[in-house]
Amino acid sequence: MYTQKVLEHFRTPHNFGSMDNPTAVGQVGNLACGDVMKLYLKIAKNKKGEDYIQDIKFETLGCAAAIATSSVVTDLAKNKTLIEALKIKNEDIIKALDDLPAVKIHCSLLAADALAEAIYEFYQKNHQPISPELEKLHQRITVCQTRLNH
C-alpha cells in the first residue's frame, strides 16, 4: 500500500514535463518492470562559481511509485550544487515519501540513478573531472541497462 505522500506525488507530480535546451539529460529504465525515467537538468553557476541545478524536469513512464520517486528526486535536487545532488541516495527519496513498498524500492534506485546519469553527462560534455565514485556508479548503471535491454 502506498503512503499519502506517494499518492500526492503520483497525482500531482512536481516538475513534470520535458525541457527545451537542457544542459544535461539522464535516462534509465528497467525493462523487467517497464519503468523508464528521463531527467532534464538546466545547470548554471551560483554566486560562488559552483555548478548547481537551476531547473529540473522529468518524464517517466511507469507505475505510481516510479512517477512519485521521479517527482521527489526533482524536489530534492533543485537548487543544489552538483556535489550536493550526487549525495542524494534512494534512501533519501524513500524517506521523503514516508516509505515505499519493498517491491517498489527499485523505483527509488532508478530515480537516483537518473540524476547521477544526468550529472555524469554534464561533466562528460563539459570535459570536467569525474570522481571515481561517479565513474563507478555510471559503470554499474551502464552494465545494468545493457543487461536489461538485451
What does this protein structure show overall?
With 150 residues, the protein is an alpha+beta fold. The protein has one domain (4-148): Sufe protein. Chain: A, CATH 3.90.1010. It has 6 helices and 3 strands; from the N terminus they run αβββααααα. The chain has helices at residues 4-11, 64-77, 82-85, 90-96, 105-125, 132-148; strands at 24-30, 35-45, 51-61. It has a 3-stranded antiparallel β-sheet with strand order 1-2-3. A hairpin with a 4-residue loop joins β1 (24-30) and β2 (35-45). α2 crosses α5 (105-125). The longest helix is centred in the last third of the chain and has 21 residues, at 105-125. The protein is globular, with a radius of gyration of 15 Å.
Structure characteristics:
3-stranded antiparallel β-sheet; globular; about 150 residues; alpha+beta; about 45% helix; 6 helices; Sufe protein. Chain: A
- Tally the structural domains: 1
**Strand arrangement, largest sheet?**
1-2-3
What is the distance, rounded to the nearest whole angstrom, between the alpha carbons of the first and last residues? 32 Å
Largest sheet: 3 strands, antiparallel
Low-confidence stretches: none
Rg to the nearest angstrom? 15 Å
Helix coverage percent: 40-55%
* Beta-strand share of residues: 15-25%
Average residue pLDDT: 93
DSSP helical segment count: 6
CATH architecture assignment? Alpha-Beta Complex
